[in-house]
Amino acid sequence: MKQIRKRLFIDIKASAKEREKIIYLALENECNTLVFSLNDNYFKNDNKKQKYTKLIKNYVLNIEAGGRDLPLLMPKQLFLLHRDLFRMEQGRRKADHHFCPTNPQTIAAITEKANILLADVLYKITAPRIFHMLPDKDNENTWCACPACRAFSPAEQYLIAVNTVADVLATLDNEAKIFYVDFDTEPDAEGISPRSNMVISERI
Description:
Layout: E1 7-9, H1 16-28, E2 33-36, H2 51-58, E3 62-67, E4 87-89, E5 92-94, H3 104-121, E6 130-133, H4 154-172, E7 177-181, E8 198-201
Parallel strand pairs: 1-2, 2-3, 3-6, 6-7, 7-8
Antiparallel strand pairs: 4-5
Helix pairs in contact: 1-2, 3-4
């Protein structure tokens, strides 16, 4: 019988002691899956001796990766020399909230970064492997307004970005899935289609 995963997302800023409490809270609420950011210390080799990681192993909890991780795909330090990779607002490039997904160089950059991030955690999460790629909280509709991007809604720009990550994941594990948010208010409008390895998430 296929196990239904009930998830609890772990804040990357949570301390080790806070995480111990969170794990007990998850168990009390019959959660069997913890979701850590792709950049979380949980995936670092020097974290194995932490008490909360031992609790996870003892209780055989599922591990998934991701969350509000889109900013990780486009490091802000690139802004100084590569502003065209970032979103435009009122004619000016901004390094906050997402990026310019129609720029081929952006796609190349997030492809390279996604390959590094996904490959680094791939064998540290529970099969069948599930990743979550959600837009910036409270800025789901804050995307690029450059001439090329204006042809796409924020939801379509988001899908372009997640599709890029999904393409990378398919080369690493063809059975893995990416959960994404379907927040478009015009479901019947023509636009960008999600990849076959993407699943709609209820979280936003």
